[in-house]
What does this fold into?
Amino acid sequence: MHDPDASLQAGVDPRRWADLLRRAHEATFARGRAPSIVRDVVADSWERCTTSGLTPDAPAAPLMVEPADARSRWEEHPLSRTADLLRGVLAGLLHDARHILVVSDADGTLLWSEGHPEVLRASEAIQFSPGYSWAEDHAGTNAVGTALAAGRPVQIFSAEHFRSAVHAFQCSGAPIRDPDSGEILGVIDVTGSYRTGHPHNLALVQTAARLAEERLRSEMLERHTRILGLFAEHASRHGGPAAALAPSGRVLAATHDAWRDQRFEVAGGTGRIVLPDGSTGTLHDLGEGLLLTAPQDARAARSRVAVTVFGKPFVTLRAPDGEHRLSGRHGEIVALLALNPDGLSSADLAEMLYGDRTREVTVRAEMHRLRDVLGAGLATRPYRLEHVDSDVAAVLADLQEGQVARARSRVRGPLLPGSSAPAIVAARQALTAALADPVR
It folds into this structure.
């Protein structure tokens, strides 16, 4: 059966396939377009690598941490607890079929490797060893970096690697996700010479990844049981709302209905926390988890906020405590959230504001400051406006109902005139066209 994520298919000679791929690689970078023989997952990766400034003759992968530090990180990494399982599943492939097993973190930095001695020595010659980054934008197309970029298992064979120095190898990688948050923890990768490649390598790696995730899930459930046992003792002593949180901030149990099925930001650990409704709570240590408590009046009703985004180079926010002007990025963020009521991720906002999805840290810093102004009006996961009325939401609702004249009557000028944020400019143009008078 054909596996679209695998490169080498059953019945195909590895050496002949490698030769065809080398010619396709040469043709792509000579003519600027990939032949049809190149799989979409590979062509997309090559395009990302080219866009990031890499070339096929790019230098070696960069050293991100010293090997000793990589070992220390590995010992503390959740996937290290699955090492024995991975060895057991992949032992035959590693030694009998001359491969190595490599594990990276979520950023693509290699933390651990073991397997056939000859392949380990060969991999060290191309810096495919602990401490080096094999993220796509550092090392080009490869099973570690491309699995992270695509968010799924992938096999990269011979000249499907972006960098020519890696064409002698084939690798199969699969991401492993945190069973609680769903975020990628790292990638497990099996690598060897292209001559020893096998169609079943990727399937075997996927099986190992699934078993590792199941072990992590089992550990998580046992941990949650212990947290809930402690919560039962502590919640009865607290008069106000209380909740048991997993280390990720997910609510496991709560005495306050509004907190159930929620996930709170707990990166700061114990101490004061601002809740999504603008009230404050306190995080306490609860063994392997956290105890969230709040005063009895945390159920207090919340006041709505009105936002105006049309006609002026700033957003006007009217709240019970008075009127505020949000200029610059804060105004643009509020306008974008008003335009996208279902919410936006930090990567979405980075793309819309800067045209660069990698500027998530900048966006998160802006959101932290904006929360001081909006309070209960700014929700997270994803970022969205709550308990907020906006003129643009009313206009969009009118347009959806075909009430163009009514929508036009609400508008007092263009959307945030003067803003050059890519998504604001696009929305401004689209709304101007939608509100245009067809009689003119």
The radius of gyration is 26 Å. The longest strand covers residues 184-193. Residues 305-435 form one domain.
